[in-house]
Amino acid sequence: MVAFTIPLIFDQSPVPIIAAKINFAINEAILDPFFYHALNNKKIKSLDDLDGECLEGLLNSNKNQIEIWLDRKKVQKLKVNDLIDDLLLFPLYKTEHRIKDMNECGLYALRKDIGLIGQYETYIEKFNIDNLKFQLLLVNDILLIEGVVYENEKLEITKKDTVTTQQYVYEI
User: Is residue 33 within a helix (H) or strand (E), and if so which, with residue range?
Assistant: First the structure.
């Protein structure tokens, strides 16, 4: 899932003007690929290029899973629920929690994707699962895994391969 927070006030921006010219409400226009062509701005080619805060991560769902591979062998396969301390007698994995409240005025564009949400790689001499920490984000009662840390070093996504299944915009 990917969630964007887009400022409601577009200071000095042609976005609302172009949306009105093509007879679309602003929340419909920013999802339409032809809107960005009409906008004719080299810096803004898609929704991803609009100013705003971007939150993304793996949803807590029965379909989603995390796989840990070492030397081309699957070492561990787990679900997001395995990371939630409240459901367990003792924590199985290290986690770091963050809470984000998205109730500020503005436009919110939500996109749900399926596929490989993120692949993280690092080169280590000896793997220890106790050095692995998952960064969890709670956004309006939706739990996401937003990152992975190994030995206090945040791992960067090396590969993504997703297809968008849902996309919508709402205004608060």
Answer: helix 33-39
